[in-house]
Design brief:
The chain is of the alpha+beta class. The chain has a domain at about 1-65 and about 100-110: hypothetical protein PF0899 fold (2-Layer Sandwich), CATH 3.30.2320. The protein has helices at about 1-15, 40-50, and strands at about 25-30, 60-65, 65-70, 75-80, 95, 100-110. The strands form 2 sheets. A 3-stranded mixed β-sheet has the order 2-1-6, covered by helices on one side. It has a 3-stranded antiparallel β-sheet with strand order 4-3-5, with no helix packed on it. Helix 1 (about 1-15) packs across helix 2. The protein is elongated, with a radius of gyration of 17 Å. It starts with a helix and ends with a strand. It binds zinc ion.
């Protein structure tokens, strides 16, 4: 399962950076074009976090829209699937955003 290994690497990253922290809240930014299913990450999180510094932490996921620029007409617009076309009919799109998966914020207990 793809999301299980992604969730595992997010938890591993936080544990490596903050081995002594107690994390209250973590916010992930998941791009709509990343292929990562936010609900599956939520499902895996409690399981993976158990017994780590993230045990009991609240997981917030922000799904950010994809953005692309058309190489033909230079228009910029939102895309939410990988088969998007520009309004001008061109298929040559440069993806600007939407494929990322980032840890945006980690809130630790004082
Ligand atoms: Zn275009």
């Amino acid at each position: 399962m793809h999301e299980l290994s992604i969730t595992q690497s997010v938890v591993d990253t936080v544990c490596e950076r903050m081995p002594d922290a107690t994390v209250r809240r973590i916010r992930l930014d998941i791009g709509r074009l990343s292929g990562v299913v936010a609900d599956s990450v939520r499902f895996c999180f409690d399981l993976v976090a158990e017994g780590t510094v993230l045990d009991g932490a609240v997981l917030e996921i922000v799904e950010s829209p994809g953005r692309a620029r058309c190489r033909a007409c230079d228009a910029e617009f939102e895309v939410n699937d990988l088969l998007a076309l520009c309004g001008c009919g061109a298929q040559e799109l440069e993806l600007l955003a939407g494929q990322e998966l980032m840890i945006k914020e980690v809130e630790v207990a004082a």
